Amino acid sequence: MGGGGKIPYPKHVWSPAGGWYSQPANWKANTAVAGAGMLFIVGLGFMLSANLEHRDKMPEPGRFFPSRYWSKQIIEHERKLKEQKEREGGQ
User: Nearest 5°: phi and psi at 62?
Assistant: First the structure.
């Protein structure tokens, strides 16, 4: 009553993934290391892209777009607009 044993497979087969029924003991640690490495590389790419971003035409104030939160050029532009509004309103 158990349906029998495992399906027979050749013992001489080698593959980089470990072959049939492979479950390495440290697969969780390896996955965590690979994930952390990928996250680090993607983060570096994101930072490089954000630092190199340049806009010739600034977006309209109040219009939503994600790069508004990390683009130094846009942050400085919006800060200048805010200061300008405060100066005009205070006069």
Answer: 90, -15
Q: Any idea what the Cα angle at residue 27 is, between residues 23 and 29, rounded to 5°?
A: 160
* DSSP annotation of 60: P
For residue 28, the one-letter residue type is: K
Query: What phi, psi does 60 have (nearest 5°)?
Result: -70, 140
pLDDT at 48: 92
Indicate the residue type of 76. E
What is the pLDDT of the chain when averaged over all its residues? 83
Tokens of 90: 């205070």
- What is the Rg, in whole angstroms, of the alpha carbon atoms belonging to the chain? 28
Query: Per-residue pLDDT averaged across 71-78, rounded?
Result: 87
